[in-house]
Design a protein that fits this description.
Blueprint: E1 24-26, H1 31-41, E2 49-53, E3 59-64, H2 65-70, H3 77-80, E4 88-89, H4 94-104, E5 108-112, E6 118-123, H5 124-142, H6 151-157, H7 169-196, H8 198-203, H9 205-209, H10 211-233, H11 240-273, H12 276-306, H13 311-339
Parallel strand pairs: 1-2, 4-5
Antiparallel strand pairs: 2-3, 5-6
Length: 340
């Protein structure tokens, strides 16, 4: 990799820096055939994983070196390869690729185009000098070791950091205010919704006491699911199959989280107020609302990504507003049905 002086260009296309000296293995090969191809074509500078492709040269699996070397020669490659491969899109930046190493902890990733054709391979050693030089240059420019908040923090709030760096107060206002209106709108609708259930709250004040906790848990889970989904969307295209798998996984996770949190909070309500019905309402509402929060955390970024919108910018305010509204509907409706 060419290392320039100063801070490396982390916005450069990762495909331009990927290695091309690697063999691709056919998924229909046997282990013996695969080893013969490797001997014939060579392994390049570094080999960590071997990648398998189908007849159309599309990526379909990854074969760890250890499995390949220890399997019998007659074994089909499809039986030892892992079919789920995390791949870096060819149009991703070097910074995006670095995030893959941090998130997934793999030693190498294939770089693929839109049709899943492998166009290169990147490994951890390849980026060591980039990261070290970027860190050293940044330390020299700051003159101290103080921590810096990353741009992802601001993107989750609804704007790019580049949009406000060095901008006038009026421009900063124009960038940030529209997304704050989403929060204001959601809060207003939540207040109106709470007004409809004022008699319910008056009959059981304990519901009001735990309202903040319910919303906080709901927002935390929705943000977690949203962050995981946004990272996943960097390497996959949104298909019905992928969306169904993601929803199934997140809903199952949310159900476990919801039941656990619901039991804990219900026990607190019973111990503190000795109110069985209120404990049932609060615990049950937490379980249901966390499931819907996870579903929104997956669905909103996927929907925005499907229509070529930036999920990092819009997903945060929209997901939180919807999650709060749905959580309040579940919470107040459950209280009205049980406590009337």
């Amino acid at each position: 990799m060419n290392i320039t002086t100063g801070i490396p260009d982390l916005n450069a296309r990762v495909a331009d820096h990927a290695r091309k000296d690697f063999p691709l293995l056919g998924a229909s090969m046997t282990v013996g055939d695969a080893l013969e191809r490797i001997r014939r074509e060579g392994v390049g500078e570094r080999v960590i994983y071997f990648y398998a492709v189908d007849e159309q040269k599309r990526l379909v699996g990854v074969v760890p070196t250890r499995r390949l070397l220890t399997a019998s020669l007659e074994m089909p490659l499809g039986e030892i390869m892992a079919p789920r491969v995390v791949a870096v899109p060819a149009n991703a930046t070097i910074l995006d690729a670095c995030e893959f190493f941090v998130l997934y902890k793999f030693l190498a990733f294939p770089v693929v185009d839109e049709e899943r054709h492998v166009v290169g391979v990147i490994d951890a050693n390849l980026f060591a000098e980039e990261i070290l030089e970027a860190g050293e240059s940044e330390d020299r420019s700051r003159g101290s070791g103080s921590g810096v908040v990353g741009p992802e923090f601001f993107e989750a709030l609804g704007f790019h950091l580049e949009q406000i760096r060095g901008a006038s107060p009026w421009r900063i206002f124009r960038v940030r205010f529209p997304w704050l209106l989403v929060t204001v709108t959601g809060g207003t609708l939540s207040a109106i919704l709470a007004g409809f259930f004022e008699p319910t709250l008056s009959r059981s004040l304990v519901l009001a006491f735990f309202l903040t906790m319910v919303l906080a848990l709901n927002e935390s889970v929705s943000m977690q699911s949203m962050s995981v989904t946004i990272h996943a969307l960097r390497s996959v295209s949104v298909t019905t199959r992928w969306l169904a798998t993601a929803f199934q996984r997140e809903v199952a996770t949310a159900l476990l989280l919801g039941v656990a949190c619901g039991i804990v909070v219900s026990a607190i309500v019973l111990t503190w107020r000795s109110d069985l019905r209120a404990a049932f309402v609060i615990g049950g509402s937490i379980t249901l609302s966390l499931v819907t929060a996870c579903a929104l955390g997956v669905g909103v970024p996927s929907f925005l990504h499907r229509f070529k919108l930036d999920p990092k910018i819009a997903a945060g305010p929209v997901t939180l507003a919807l999650a709060d509204l749905i959580a309040l509907v579940i919470y107040f409706t459950s209280g009205w049905l049980v406590l009337r």
